[in-house]
DNA sequence: ATTCAGTTTGG
DNA sequence: CCAAAC
DNA sequence: GAAT
């Protein structure tokens, strides 16, 4: 792992090739590049603007318009009958069973042999996770591993239409009508609500508790975390020890439950005292799933259902309903029968509610549940078949009477609410205008203390109620109002069959061709093979207005942003690809058929496109509830991601004041809030040029031989940039290097009062440094600044990496992976062996890092100048 | 059914 | 180890 | 959510 190793080899190479010019004032041209000749020609060109347009991120600013309606899918509710529940206690019996009996994998984790990943010498250790750690567990566990389940769910989620009926409540009640929290600005003693104190609901300060989700589950490949569990299981302290879910350990099995809904549900459960776990073990008190009962044990890796005895296996609506009434719903109605009487003749198992309600569980025998071990739960598991018997879930309107509190809060569009989020007015954020020097710590620290004080359950409930209201559960009037919502997966079984059969055909056909046509030239085969990678094609930045598919793009972008906030990683990726494909498709898409032909656009999105074409609108967009608006606002804060935003939302916070008062913020989040308004804006290109000069100046005062490159969107030629990304290096042929300059440059910039806030300092690693902070030209706005220092020899890889865009990087990296190579900011490595989960098992051999060209060539990707990398 | 990039820093 | 960021 |  020494840096030296790799580096030395290539390093000596002349750097001469690189001619870097770098930012010259405005003129700038993206040309740059080091590139050896050949391709250079193309590069210099300015962008052809032809391509269609669209300004990135624009949409993010849009808010979802009026939504009104529908229930948001984020909402926790979904179908089904809303029956009543009375609840109670019941289950306390199940509580606490001791957990630990084994956490499996403690193991291996870091043996040394592991490989460091890629060569990155100086980097810190890498924990490589060996493949699954199934290891020691008793054989049975193996079953859990994945493959065992063969269930094939061929069918995706059927198109379900949920009909929601809500009683309109006439209001009120609970005297506190005030609910809408007028949380006035800080300081105010707000609400009376608070007066009503519920018993202790202290919030634990330990925030980590929340995270215990997924402790295990390694299956999830890289992006997900790997489990930990090593050793101790951390104590989980419920957020609200008196919450309705307190003392319960609930395992959610994700399959059909939309991840969006699922995540919100989990947050709510946690906010109300429950523990959400990902591993099944005997301490689990409730399992929530839409799977047919007979399959549940498989997902959990259990041999049979016996181990589930004594544990409630419930439909998701149990959770929703409980939240809705803020009381634990009786479980009976939501129990999922574990032994399905249904005949084996396939195609019957449905998860539909109606069906379930009819079934009785046969309690076959039950008894021993021997296992104490914990097993992995599969996260993405789908039922064998899901047929949908009923498209509409039965709705029983029974007079339910929600808890008083719930009812009382019907009005939601209170002025205070809307005012709070009015965009951009600075006035709302006092901090931003305050004296920077002191405000940061003073008020904030004070606020922190407040955090300790118990949160008010009542206000939380009110928030919840408001949320529901907003979500469209209540009509203004008093009676029931039904709303139909097309849920995310809206494919009917038939549609699915169609899809699958076409896929099959396709495959067959393909297979044929391949086998029959061996005659293709290798090259063309290669092209074909990798043609689907977006990095293989030019993607230039375009203006939105010009794009013939502007409307479609905007709508999809709204959904994209929404899914991103909801932390639905993969769906987000798909939407990004679809939007990207659409941006570069320069003629108007006029039909489903045309849309689905576009790579990256599949059935579901094509269907949405058709709807937009037909109606100019997309119901799915309209159905995003207002709650999303709040989450969107929170996530817009630098340092706040969807996890924090969802959690805060679940806790009932709706405004910045709420979080300032009640939440322990990280340093970055405080800064993010302070500079919130300015940071929401994109930076005009010319200003980036100007800022780059300041940094260059500071760098040169440290060492005149440093070379700087403004990368990111600036290098790609965008007219506006989200931040300023500057890469710094130094030709080390004279024996000196860039090492250690970063702190000096930063200090210099601080002294000039240019850098106003630090967000992240590089850790000691003098070979490569990374800094993130906020700067401001005098009289200007706050701007995010990122500085990176890299070894000269890695310049090409670093430029490629930091120029992006992110989609381009992911694409080209995926392509590298497919070729058994690995591309990162240090270089391109070949002969990478990967274990399960995609982890590199070896460092591979470094084959390119000095110039971008070298890397493109090694990958077989045609040269793409920066302006063609805006995928 | 599986996969979806690869990494760094703060807490 | 996770969340958030690039 | 799409491609494989
Ligand atoms: O998930 C990511 C995010 C960014 N990058 C790289 C590519 C990107 O171009 C560069 C700078 O990141 P930044 O977030 O600044 O994106 P940008 O492309 O510069 O766009 P923006 O105009 O929003 O700054 O870092 C990645 O590789 N992966
Ligand atoms: Mg940038």
From TrEMBL:
SMART domains: POLXc. It is an enzyme of class 2 (transferase). Pfam families: BRCT, DNA_pol_B_palm, DNA_pol_B_thumb, DNA_pol_lambd_f, HHH_8. Residues 506-515 have a biased composition (Basic and acidic residues). Residues 240-336 form the BRCT domain. Keywords: DNA damage, DNA repair, DNA replication, DNA synthesis, DNA-directed DNA polymerase, Lyase, Nucleotidyltransferase, Transferase. The active site is at 608 (nucleophile). GO terms for molecular function: DNA binding; DNA-directed DNA polymerase activity; lyase activity. Residues 33-46, 363-372, 413-433 have a biased composition (Low complexity). Residues 8-18, 342-354 have a biased composition (Polar residues). GO terms for cellular component: nucleus. Its cofactor is Mn(2+). It comes from the Eukaryota. Its EC number is 2.7.7.7. One of its GO terms (biological process) is double-strand break repair via nonhomologous end joining. InterPro entries: BRCT_dom, BRCT_dom_sf, DNA-dir_DNA_pol_X, DNA_pol_B_palm_palm, DNA_pol_lambd_fingers_domain, DNA_pol_lamdba_lyase_dom_sf, DNA_Pol_thumb_sf, DNA_pol_X. The keyword Lyase applies. Residues 1-47, 106-133, 166-229, 339-437, 506-529 are annotated as: Disordered. It catalyses: DNA(n) + a 2'-deoxyribonucleoside 5'-triphosphate = DNA(n+1) + diphosphate. PANTHER family: DNA POLYMERASE LAMBDA, DNA POLYMERASE TYPE-X FAMILY MEMBER. This is DNA polymerase lambda. It comes from Diversispora epigaea.
């Amino acid at each position: 792992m020494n840096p030296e190793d790799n580096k030395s080899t290539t390093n000596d190479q002349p750097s001469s090739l690189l001619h870097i010019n770098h930012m010259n004032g405005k003129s700038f041209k993206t040309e740059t590049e080091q590139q050896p000749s050949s391709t250079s020609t193309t590069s210099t060109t300015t962008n052809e603007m032809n391509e269609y347009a669209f300004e990135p991120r624009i949409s993010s600013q849009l808010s979802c318009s009026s939504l009104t309606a529908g229930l948001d899918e984020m909402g926790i509710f979904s179908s089904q009958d809303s029956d009543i529940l009375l609840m109670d206690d019941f289950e306390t019996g199940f509580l606490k069973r001791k957990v630990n009996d084994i956490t499996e994998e403690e193991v291996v984790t870091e043996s040394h042999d592991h490989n460091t990943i890629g060569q990155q010498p100086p980097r810190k250790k890498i924990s490589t996770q060996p493949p699954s750690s199934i290891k020691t567990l008793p054989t049975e566990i193996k079953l859990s591993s994945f493959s065992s389940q063969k269930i094939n769910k061929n069918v995706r989620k059927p198109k379900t239409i949920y009909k929601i009926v809500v009683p309109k409540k006439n209001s009120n009640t609970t005297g506190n009508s005030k609910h809408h929290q007028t949380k006035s600005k800080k300081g105010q003693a707000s609400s009376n609500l608070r007066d009503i104190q519920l018993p202790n609901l202290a919030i634990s300060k330990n925030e980590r508790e929340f995270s215990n989700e997924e402790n295990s589950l390694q299956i999830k490949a890289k992006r997900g975390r790997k489990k930990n569990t090593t050793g101790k299981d951390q104590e989980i302290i419920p957020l609200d020890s008196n919450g309705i879910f307190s003392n319960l350990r609930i395992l959610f099995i994700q399959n059909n439950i939309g991840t969006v809904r699922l995540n919100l549900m989990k947050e709510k459960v946690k906010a109300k005292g429950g523990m959400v776990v990902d591993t099944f073990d005997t301490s689990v008190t409730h399992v929530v799933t839409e799977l047919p009962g007979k399959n549940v044990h498989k997902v959990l890796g259990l041999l049979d259902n016996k181990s589930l005895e004594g544990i409630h296996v419930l439909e998701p609506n149990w959770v929703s309903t409980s939240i809705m009434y803020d009381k634990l719903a009786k479980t009976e109605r939501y129990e999922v029968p574990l032994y399905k009487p249904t005949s084996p003749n396939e195609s019957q198992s449905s998860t539909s509610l109606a069906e379930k309600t009819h079934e009785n569980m046969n309690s076959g025998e039950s008894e021993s549940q021997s296992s104490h071990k914990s097993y992995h739960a599969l996260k993405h598991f789908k039922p064998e078949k899901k047929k949908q018997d009923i498209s509409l879930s039965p709705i029983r309107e029974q007079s339910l009477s929600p808890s008083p509190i719930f009812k009382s809060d019907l009005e939601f569009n209170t002025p205070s609410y809307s005012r709070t989020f009015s965009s951009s007015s600075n006035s709302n954020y006092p901090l931003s205008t305050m004296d920077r020097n002191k405000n940061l710590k003073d008020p904030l620290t004070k606020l922190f203390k407040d955090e300790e004080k118990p949160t008010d359950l009542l206000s939380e409930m009110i928030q919840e109620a408001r949320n529901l209201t907003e979500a469209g559960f209540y009509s203004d009037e008093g009676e029931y109002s039904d709303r139909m919502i097309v849920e995310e997966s809206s494919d009917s079984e038939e549609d699915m069959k169609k899809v699958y059969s076409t896929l099959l055909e396709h495959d067959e056909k393909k297979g044929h061709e391949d086998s029959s046509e061996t005659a293709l030239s290798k090259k063309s085969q290669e092209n074909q093979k990798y043609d689907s990678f977006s990095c293989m094609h030019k993607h230039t930045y375009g203006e939105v207005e010009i794009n013939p598919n502007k409307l479609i793009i905007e709508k999809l972008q709204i959904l994209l942003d929404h899914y991103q906030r909801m932390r639905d990683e993969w769906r987000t990726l798909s939407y990004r690809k679809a939007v990207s494909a659409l941006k570069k498709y320069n003629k108007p898409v006029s039909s489903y058929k045309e849309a689905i032909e576009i790579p990256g656009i599949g059935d579901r999105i094509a269907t949405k496109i058709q709807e937009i074409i037909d109606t100019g609108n997309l119901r799915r967009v309209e159905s995003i509830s207002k709650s999303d608006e709040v989450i969107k606002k929170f996530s817009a804060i630098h340092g706040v991601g969807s996890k924090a935003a969802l959690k805060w939302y679940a806790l009932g916070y709706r405004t910045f004041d709420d979080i300032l008062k009640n939440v322990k913020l990280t340093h970055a989040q405080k800064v993010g809030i302070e500079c919130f308004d300015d940071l929401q804006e994109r930076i005009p290109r010319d200003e980036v040029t100007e800022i780059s000069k300041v940094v260059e100046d500071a760098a040169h005062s440290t060492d005149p031989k440093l070379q700087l490159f403004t990368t990111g969107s600036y290098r790609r030629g965008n007219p506006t940039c989200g931040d300023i990304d500057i890469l710094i290096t130094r030709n080390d042929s004279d024996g000196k290097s860039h090492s250690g300059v970063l702190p000096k440059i930063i200090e210099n910039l601080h002294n000039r009062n240019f850098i106003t806030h630090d967000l992240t300092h590089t850790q000691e690693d003098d070979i490569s440094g990374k800094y993130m902070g906020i700067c401001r030209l005098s009289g200007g706005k706050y701007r995010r600044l990122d500085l990176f220092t890299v070894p000269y020899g890695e310049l090409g890889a670093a430029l490629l990496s930091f120029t992006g865009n992110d989609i381009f990087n992911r694409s080209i990296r995926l392509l590298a992976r497919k070729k058994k190579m690995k591309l990162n900011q240090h270089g391109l490595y070949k002969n990478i062996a990967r274990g399960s989960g995609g982890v590199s098992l070896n460092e591979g051999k470094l084959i390119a890092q000095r110039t971008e060209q070298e890397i493109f060539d090694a990958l077989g990707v045609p040269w793409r100048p920066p302006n063609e990398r805006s995928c």
